[in-house]
Design goal:
seven-stranded mixed beta sheet; alpha/beta; 7 strands; 5 helices
Length: 197
């Protein structure tokens, strides 16, 4: 998969606007400001393919990026308190509509800020993915912000805080140092490309 050839494809604010599924999709999910845009830019070796914002809740649409074999779908960040109830409901319907549809979603990349325990929304999303039997991995972002000892403590914490943690593939990632990028790319390729290729 040529990650350098990714292009922005389209944005949709409501599930009914999204065209029929054309090829395999990989979705990126996480709370507001967890670093989804930074991760997408790092994977695609681009500085501004996905717009990075310091304002939480900025991504209010599903943004699709096209690569040869698949689409990458950047889902709206959830859990931002300063958004109206109506807007939260729209986001919820958009995300849930997308994830429960009959689209060919090969993998969900669930992002969690490594510095903190998972939020109630993070755990709700993980439970939802498990209940739907949707294949997913967890990427722990902002790993460079922690010392080696702090990282070990947080990983031990996650083992207690996240259900079935020992059965979920997780990758520690830093947009600053590039740690974890190659591993994430390998997992994405494995999800999209048939085993016999």
């Amino acid at each position: 998969m040529n990650f350098n050839k990714a292009e922005f494809y389209a944005s949709y604010g409501q599930f009914k606007q999204i065209p029929k599924c054309e090829k395999t999709e990989i979705a990126f999910s996480g709370r507001s400001n967890v670093g989804k845009s930074s991760l997408i830019n790092k994977i695609f070796s681009r500085k501004s393919l996905a717009r990075v914002s310091s304002v939480p809740g900025k991504t209010a649409t599903i943004n699709f990026y096209s690569i040869d074999e698949c689409f990458m779908a950047d889902l709206p960040g959830y859990g931002y308190a300063k958004v109206s109830k109506g807007e939260k409901l729209r986001w919820s319907e958009l995300i849930e509509g997308y994830l429960t549809s009959d689209r060919d979603i090969a993998l969900v990349v669930q992002l969690i800020d490594m510095r903190h325990p998972p939020s109630a929304d993070d755990l709700h999303m993980i439970d939802f993915l498990i209940d739907c039997e949707q294949p997913f991995i967890i990427v722990f972002t902002k790993a460079d912000k922690l010392s080696k000892r702090q990282r070990e403590e947080r990983m031990a914490g996650f083992a207690d805080e996240i259900p079935y943690f020992d059965q979920i593939k997780s990758i520690e990632f830093s947009a600053v140092t590039g740690e974890g990028v190659d591993m994430i790319k390998a997992v994405l390729e494995e999800a999209v490309l048939p085993e016999n290729e």
